[in-house]
Amino acid sequence: MGTADTLVPFAERVSYNFQQWSFRRNAGAVHFTEEQMEWLRLIKDHIAASLSVEPEDLDLSPFDRKGGLGRFYEVFGENYEQILMELNVELVA
């Protein structure tokens, strides 16, 4: 179809895109904390398995063990929805 030279498993593509995205984001003035990175890795894994993530997904396993959507909001603040939307776009590109 002309979109890629080789086929790559989706989970590998998501992991590569996550690595690139997190390097770009951490290169700026704001750096993710270790707790934020734990959340982001869980979200990456969720996207690799489910193709996307929605706020309500954060009340399901494995996110519920970390406090669910409420804790995610505490960790990322008002930008939590922007982070989720950005991950949905960047990781599946």
What features would you describe in this structure?
The two termini are 16 Å apart. The longest helix has 17 residues, at 10-26. Helix 1 packs antiparallel against helix 2, helix 1 (10-26) crosses helix 4 and helix 2 packs across helix 4. The model has no long low-confidence stretch (mean pLDDT 93). The protein has 93 residues and is mainly alpha-helical. The protein is globular and about 40 Å long. The chain is built from 4 helices and no strands.
Poorly predicted regions:
none
Briefly note the structural class of the backbone: mainly alpha
Coarse shape: globular
Largest sheet: none
Mean pLDDT: 93
Q: What is the strand and helix layout of this fold?
A:
Elements (H helix, E strand, L loop, with lengths): L9 H17 L7 H17 L17 H9 L3 H13 L1
Descriptors:
single chain, mainly alpha, 4 helices, globular
Provide a quick synopsis of the model.
With 93 residues, the protein is mainly α. It has four helices and no strands.
